[in-house]
């Protein structure tokens, strides 16, 4: 008995296709389903029997020897391939994936990366991508990642299963459609333009996904695709050879199923492939074509996915505009409650954000949506009509609530889940165990997490997030309040990304637990660091992550580097991160003795050659050195050690008095000493008179003054002696000299706060030595004010004092 072959051309993530496919499978009752997916990954289908495997999820295939080579095959609940696999598991039918094995896709991905890297290196410096500048190694690596992320040959919108590389595809890689179809990325644009639609997306939604029935759908799709393959062209960026290999492999898979004796075979594939798979092609020709198919050793697993990464806005080549809307279509389909159910969800979102939305609003919005659909000769409102009605009635024409609805409903916040039985590397299992123990839920939507570091559970949560940051896994990002180093409080923003699964697999080479991997990664970073400030910041990070072994290793590396580094500015730049350890030491119960020893030694060495190092700097270098001096001064204050403070102020005094040093930095040193009380008014007046005298070069004097003012107007507002000297210097400048220095003076005064500039203007108006105008006395009735005291004391929980009447 010959086998019956049925071809079902679908679009990936299409709820209309999925619904029609389920009906067709119920009618056909196939004993074998051949699905466009990576051959050899059939064992992963068995996990669909586990109720904990909840879409959206992705079938992840990665290189065993190079985990950074990876391909995702995402599925949502409304993806036709997912529903086909569900049907097969429920009915006991055999499932086979017939696309090229993941090892072939990974080999192609590696070849593209190597080819691009070779072309970029061969390109002359200064002629890269039309930018006119040579690319750095990091830029070359980023560009290579973008090439890996470029959509593969199957990632057109008429396609079925569309793989995603480990890096997200870039939306700008898509070719723009043209009126005649040449260079179109989406072949459906041909049919859309013929039917009067703007693009293939809207046409396909109307004709397929938003329809309530699917009778004869797959026959119509096959006929349309056959016509397109004869007359249309796939867009630029697609590799014809890879496309031919994929179709040859799928045909070979179909022949193998027929040979094995299956009677009713259903082939579920991208719509574009149907004519090629159902057409005539000899087994010998396909075998010859596949003879040299490259392969790498690959492994597969399931990982959680998100609706945001299913959306076309993420750059995913087979993405859809509104995953949340497609989920609504899947669940409510052609039912009459589709419109009402959608508006009910819109109302819930608006009310959760304290926006007015009454029942009358909803009734009028539903009427408007139905009217618009009738005017456009549509059987039911599509998302276009629903959005227009929402904007007009519920949002009063305001786009801001519509953006809220787009994120919450049209795209959605759903993230899938994967059962523990799914194969993972030990590092993934350790992280999952810690997440459960610390009650940290992986969610796609960014959520704030406030931690009190005095609480043991919150402290362990903070340490876990910091360890993941050391592994370049940015699940958590410290918020503004969390950067207050002396606080017991940290505020994080948590948002889980599917790509972190790849990062975990890549990081597994460092260790089997998060602590082991983060320690090994930190030690490697310390050995690769090129500058002392990088090492000192790394010490701060490993202390926050509570990794004692890493602290010792990084500290030893820092000490060895500091011993041979002769640049005082480099040593000073490393101090602020070490000083932060002082502030966190008590909160996190860390031993900062080794860090204090490092701090003291580096400060002493920096102070020895500071004056010489700061001479003869140009304006830009002097500006950078000023920031280093100011940061080092704050670090010494945090150290809170009298001996180190005295050493630092001695170095600043030498700098302030050294005429060989850059004027800007001499001015900064003078101001720091004055603010600390190490220079009295007489000493400051002497330095002002010396540096702002008529014999001083005006530009040097202006630079010195810029450093002395240090973006703080307090000394001008409250010290008459300083004010008089600066006022006299400016008044005695000649016209030519004044024109030379006024831009620098204006820049210096522009750094003051607006209120300080206003007070300075008032200060200019009054004569030198005159007291500021007294504030007008306000009338004050003490007896009347006392009447409120008993109530205030009661409100604040204070004991009454005497008779407040």
Automatic annotation (TrEMBL):
It comes from the Bacteria. Residues 117-187 are annotated as: Disordered. Coiled coil: none annotated. It holds the Pfam family DUF5682. InterPro entries: DUF5682 (IPR043737), LolB (IPR050458). PANTHER family: OUTER MEMBRANE LOLAB LIPOPROTEIN INSERTION APPARATUS, PTHR30634:SF14. This is DUF5682 family protein.
